[in-house]
Amino acid sequence: MMAKKKSNIEKYNESLTHEERKANASNAGIASGIARQEMATLRELTKNILQTKIDLSTIEGMEELKAVVGSKATAGELMLWAQILEGIKGNTSAAIFARDTAGEKPSDKVQLQTDIEMNDKLREVEAYIKGCGGNE
């Protein structure tokens, strides 16, 4: 088997002292923590905005939607309705978004079916092994 060719980062790391590698790892960990915190803040802000109630009478062209959801709706509800309406008009991406948001994503169902089948097969193998005198 051939030896794996070293990447540039591996070559660079070999040129550093232990202390330099340790300092780089520490700085990377700090930067990673800051990035995770920023993402968490953005997620929380997005959740809050999506839950904010909006008066539909202040937005032009919302008569159709107002008839369905009433005079006030959250930003998230409005976005979902907008996607559903676009999907009805033929926008496939919008239709897929609405379907997936509802939990009807086909790949999730296929994965679930596979997991169930695997558990059944494992039980069959386990029973076979026990029947042959294994694990007594």
Which key terms come to mind for this protein?
136 residues; two-stranded antiparallel ribbon; flat
How is the topology of this model organized?
Elements: H1 8-15, H2 18-50, E1 53-55, H3 63-69, E2 72-74, H4 75-88, H5 92-101, H6 106-131
Antiparallel strand pairs: 1-2
Helix pairs in contact: 4-5
Can you characterise this structure?
The chain is mainly α and 136 residues long. Among the domains are: 56-104, no CATH class; 105-136. The chain has 6 helices and 2 strands; from the N terminus they run ααβαβααα. The chain has helices at 8-15, 18-50, 63-69, 75-88, 92-101, 106-131, and strands at 53-55, 72-74. Helix 4 (75-88) crosses helix 5 (92-101). The longest helix is centred in the N-terminal third of the chain and has 33 residues, at 18-50. The chain starts with 7 loop residues before the first helix and ends in a 5-residue tail after the last helix.
Total beta strand runs:
2
Instruction: Give the mean pLDDT.
Output: 81
Rg, nearest Å: 27 Å
Rough shape?
A: flat
Let me know the largest β-sheet. Answer: 2 strands, antiparallel
Roughly how many Å apart are the termini? 41 Å
| String of helices and strands | HHEHEHHH
Strand content: under 5%
In helices, the fraction of residues equals over 70%
